[in-house]
Each structure stands twice: as structure tokens, then as C-alpha cells.
Amino acid sequence: xxAVFKRxxxxxxxxxxxxxRGRRWQHIFTFVALVMVPLGVVWGLxxxxxxxxxxxxxxxxxLHVPAAFVAQSCYIMMAVAGVVxxxxxxxxxxxxxxxxxPIGLSFCFIALFTGAVWGKPTWGTxxxxxxxxxxxxxxxxxxxxxxxxxxxIEDLAAAGRACALLAIVGVVNIPIIKYSxxxxxxxxxxxxxxxxxKPSMPAEMWMPLLVxxxxxxxxxxxxxxxxxxxxxxxxxxxxxxxxxxxxxTGVPDANNSGSGAQS
Amino acid sequence: xxxxxxxxEAFFAMGKHGFYVWLSYGVGFAVILINILLAKRQRxxxxxxxxxxxxxxxxxxxxxxxxxxxxxxxxxxxxxSQS
Lengths: 263, 83
Hints:
The complex is a heterodimer of chains A (263) and B (83).
Chain A: H1 2-12, H2 15-47, H3 61-88, H4 91-123, H5 131-152, H6 156-170, H7 173-183, H8 203-235, H9 240-249
Chain B: H1 8-13, H2 18-62, H3 66-82
Subcellular location (chain B): Cell inner membrane
Membrane topology (chain B): Single-pass membrane protein
Function (chain B): Required for the export of heme to the periplasm for the biogenesis of c-type cytochromes.
């Protein structure tokens, strides 16, 4: 078992393997996202029943909650990549970490923005220094910090190590975000969906939410694969396999990412 | 599963909350679209970088196109400084 895992781990640590095998995963996740995101969003916006307290403004949940889930999961993934980078000195882990940062930043921004717009009709204010909102804002700053740190250090190995450390240290913020609604009783409502309990909303409401969550995770993973594979091309540009890959494709086709990879 | 609104107008109005709902979804999907476009541009740029390197190698190996050499070595220097 451990031998199988070791082999798997070792293989995905190779830039060429990640580029070649990642292509199929990228396409699978792209397909899932293209099906699930429109399905979940249309379902949630047009067919889910209206909320008796909040009216139709609650429909923002179908964008807000998936974005917030992805923003936090992305950070945890980056911290895990940081541990792999520091312990095993795996180059691909550095690439994954820095490639995921702008995506996590985007989803974190979406969560904060939709939350503010939702807060206005529901709480009467765009922003309040509530524990959940503040800890999410810190997550946004962590993403910005990691990207700034990366671009400030010229040497790739040093930049990778610095970003890995920052990602690992910052992960302390994630449980604070998660439990903020339980520890401090403020404006933000507690979780609507929990793995261990029955949802606090009817099935007609949470089913489209689940579809949206799956769709946005797939979208996130597709983008991580795409960005990581791009950065692998850039970093490995002096190697023979990248040269022949690019020579084989002619004009780069962003839709059909590197068909020469299979040859 | 039934349409939760009486009419299409009611759907766009979202009760009294049309502005908030559509602002959220508009900005949210704009950010996602920008993400996708930037990732695709990054891909095109990475491929272009490799192609530029290959052209430089072809010039220095064959000694042809001496007029292009100045441009290529300048871009190669820029390229090297990025790595």
C-alpha cells in the first residue's frame, strides 16, 4: 500500500508526468463544471422556493457559499503543497501552490463581495467587523501576501520556500473562519450545510446548493490544473520534452491544451 | 420542480431584491470569466516563450538571419533574467 502511494506520489512530482496526466483531469473537471455550475445556478435562481424570512435575496447563497468553500479549501490545499515542498523539496508542489493563489484570491473576493451585497438587504449594512467577515478578509490578505512575496523574490527555489512557509503559518486562520460563527455570536448566520447534521433548510433549497458546490470545486480544480501546467511549461522551457511539445502544437490552442502532449 | 416566480418580470425583479441578486451574480461571474481568460493568456505566453527560445537556438546554430540576432539575443537576455 505504502509502496503504491510512494510510486504515485513520486510520479506526480515529476513536471512532465503532471503536465501529461494533468491534462485529462483538467478536462474532466472542466466538463463537470460546465454541467454543474449552470445547472445549480439556474436551479437555485429560478426553481428553488423563496425564503419566508429573507425573500429572494437569499438566492445569493448559491454563489456565496460555494465561493467561500472553495476559497478556504484552496488555502488548505496550498498549505499542504507547502508542507510537501518543504519536506520533500518537490518542485511541482511549489508550482501548484503559486498557481492556486490567484484562483483562491478570486473566490475569496467573490465570497466577500456577495456577502456584502447580501448583507445590505438582510442586515441593513454592507460591512460589519463581525468575526466571520473579518477572518475572511484576513484570508484575502493572506492570498495577496503570498502572491506579493512570490513576485518579490527572484530566485524560484527561495520564493517557493518563502511562500510555502507563509501558506503553512496562515492556515491557522482556517479553523478561526470555520468556528467564528460558533465562538462569537454575531450577525453572520451559522453553517447551513454540515457533514454531520441534517441541513437546516429544505431539500428543494440545499440540493441546488450542493450542485453549485460540486460545480465550483470542479471549476477551481480545472483552473488549478490549467495554471499549474502553464507554469510547468514556463519553468521547464529549456528541456527537450517542452521544446518538442511546443514545436508539435504549432499555434497554441488554449481550448485543446497541448494535444502534442500525447505524442 | 416548478418555476418559483409568477412571471419573467417577477424573476428579474427578485421581489424587491433584484439589484442585490443580479449585482452579486454579475460581479461573481465577471471575476470567474477574468480568471479563465487570464489563465488562457498565461498559456499562450508560456508557449510563446518556449518558441522564442527555439528560434534563438536555431539562429545561433545555423548563423542565418543575422539581422534578427540582435532582437533575439535581447529577448533571450530578458528571458534569462526572469528565470
